[in-house]
Amino acid sequence: MADKQVLMQVRNLKKYFPITRGIVVQREVGAIKAVDDISFDVYQGETLGLVGESGCGKSTTGRTILQLYRPTAGNVHFEGTDLVNIKGEELRRMRRRMQMIFQDPYASLNPRMTVGNIIGEPLEVHGIAKGKERRERVQELLRVVGLNPYFVNRYPHEFSGGQRQRIGVARALALNPAFIVCDEPISALDVSIQAQVVNLLEDLQAEFGLTYLFIAHDLSMVRHISTRVAVMYLGKIVELTDRESLYLHPLHPYTKALLSAVPIPDPVVEEKRQRIILEGDVPSPANPPKGCNFSTRCPVAIERCFEEEPEFREISSEHWCACHLV
Amino acid sequence: MTSLLEVKELKTRFFTQDGVVNAVNGVSYTLGEGEALGIVGESGCGKSVSVLSIMRLIPDPPGKIVGGEVMFEGRNLLEMTADEIRSIRGNKIAMIFQDPMTSLNPVLTIGRQVSEALELHMGMDKKEARQRTVELLEMVGIPEAVDRVDDYPHQFSGGMRQRVMIAMGLSCNPQILIADEPTTALDVTIQAQIVELVKRLREEIGMAVIWITHDLGIIAGFAEKVIVMYAGFIVEAAQVKELYGNPRHPYTIALLGSLPRLDATTHEKLVSIEGLPPDLIALPKGCPFAARCEYVLDKCLEENPSLEPVGPNHYIACWVDVTGGAA
Fold first, then answer.
1. What gap in Å lies between CA B221 and CA A266, rounded to an integer?
2. Residues A138, A140, A145, CA angle at the centre, nearest 5°?
3. How far is A130 from chain B (nearest CA, A)?
4. Interface of chain B against chain A, CB under 8 Å?
5. Closest-CA residue in chain A for B196?
6. How far is B38 from chain A (nearest CA, A)?
7. How far B37 CA sits from the closest chain A CA (Å)?
8. A-chain residues within 8 Å CB-CB of B191?
9. Of B219, B176, B166, the residue nearest B39 (C-alpha)
């Protein structure tokens, strides 16, 4: 990366979901802190990997920066506009520039719409193309994602999981976005099909100069596809740096444990590996521990970790980490 | 190693409205005493159905085991009466399932569910069974097991529920534990906990384990012998180091190439296997992988290769010797 241009700037983003009690009169009795004060930049043309275990808030982060959920607090600057402060037509116009690819290719496509309508709808909604022009554009998009252009009149159930995910990709590409949030786009697919979709995403990035936020729990795949990687734990980013530093010199104890838990498909390597086995489970985001969120499972926690929340700071150039011991 | 379980030419079919699904098409292997066997394959390759057939857990109708035999302790499990197989299932051969959320009964306490097998197979009374249940829960690493036996499944997290399932599986000191994708629904750090647990228990108890998964990574650190399945056939079988170090079947080679590695030092494009696995209702005449294989010959389209040895304890079902035997 020569000169890095910031495409999206996320600052102090929070998303709390209220917990309510009562049937007629709903009282708020607490909040699930799904995303709790995170800040990061997304550079032009990069793939930022966002990893973490289920429930750590990675998907909520993706949806919140696209304003599919409105944030509780914080700012999201994208192409010169603060998305948090705009709404209605203005926000709708910004949506052309940022799209999402969803996890479940079976649930994210309307079974009653033809492929042509699914991919063509955004073109119509945003008044970009109609009629013959629209049809041509849809066929072109199908070709781009490696599907037969004659499939336009078919329905989603006629396709396999991998093909459906390609349809989802074509739909996301329809409006020529600059930024795409890929929310676990391959985790519902079989191993041999995963590689097809990942290769497609890489090819499209090279061809159209796309920027991805790639959300996944598969650390091996994230290493493969990402330029930089952010690790989340219980609503917070605990470490963020470029791919090589993260995988070769992880700083945060959670990152270390997470990396050591990933099996490597090589029995010779596996024999020599030392695992850091974390005890227990992730605490509830409705009631996170005092001090550092990871303190309850951290193998190296000191007293300070239970008292004081560590600051997310730049340890060395372009390497951020939130830990007292680093 | 003496063989404990011998599966010969197992064939399972499902008779559905759309046609006959050829789920398992003549699978043979042996499991030695205390051995760890991994069965790998993608969804729909017949890996789960093949072990469910061993346990006689195939719903009939529509499923039916149409051929083969499964020898265990000198007897064919497939010819046993329902009562006889019930005395083996959960007792000498135990199974843990993929989804710990749905495999436990939500309206019964954990203690009741674990102790059921103890009362049934071991003839324990309620008190003994409860005591043993607590021991088992402690053995699989459930903290404060004495207090938690009376909890219900919803009070446990996913990883804890899988531990309970393992405790149930181990309750009668089985000789074989069949684990059907036990960690697929779990996070990586929890997965590592469960894999370590089963490894440790295998050493302590000396049971044989059949671990079914789609994840070639887990098997690498766990199994001694690996079987790769595709479309209901075994396409390759070898000792674990041999299989990963010297894969010989084009499918295995492609599958290993399609996996990104955590310890990768270079950024290479992933090998993608184009196309899809065949429809099990209308299997092609020749090799099931022929349509996606880059080494395909005319012969592959005509005749399905059988599983033949290509080295010590190494078998492949392929007409083409892709690597020429070079390591």
1. 8
2. 95
3. 33
4. 42-43, 157, 159-160, 187-193, 195-196, 214-221, 240-241, 244-245, 254-256, 258-264, 267, 269-274, 276
5. A277
6. 12
7. 14
8. 261
9. B219
**Where residue B322 falls among pLDDT bands split at 50, 70, 90?**
confident
Task: Name every residue in A having a CB less than 8 A away from some CB of B.
Answer: 53-54, 160, 162, 190-196, 198-199, 202, 217, 219-221, 223-225, 247, 257-271, 273, 275, 277-278, 281
Alpha carbon of A247: minimum distance to chain B alpha carbons (Å): 8
Contacts of residue B174, Cβ cutoff 8 Å, sequence gap at least 6: B90, B91, B92, B93, B94, B207
Flag if A247 and B262 touch (Cβ within 8 Å): yes
Give CA–CA dist A90/A78, Å, rounded. Answer: 13
| Residue of B202, B123, B136, B188 lying closest to B167 (CA atoms) | B136
Contacts of B42 (CB under 8 A, 6+ apart): A190, A191, A192, B214, B230, B277
- What string of DSSP letters covers B52-64? HHHTT---TTTEE
Q: What is the DSSP string of A46-82?
A: -EEEEE--TTSSHHHHHHHHTTSS--SEEEEEETTEE
The one-letter amino acid code at B9 reads E
In order, the DSSP letters of A197-256 are: HHHHHHHHHHHHT-EEEEEES-HHHHHHH-SEEEEEETTEEEEEEEHHHHHHS--SHHHH
- DSSP conformational letter for A83: G
Q: Do B256 and A194 touch (CB under 8 A)?
A: no
A115-124: pLDDT as tens digits? 999 999 999 9
B325 confidence band (pLDDT: 50, 70, 90): very low
pLDDT in tens, B23-39: 999 999 999 988 999 99
Distance CA B44, CA B232 (A): 8
pLDDT in tens, B267-321: 778 888 888 888 889 888 899 999 888 888 888 999 899 998 988 889 999 998 7
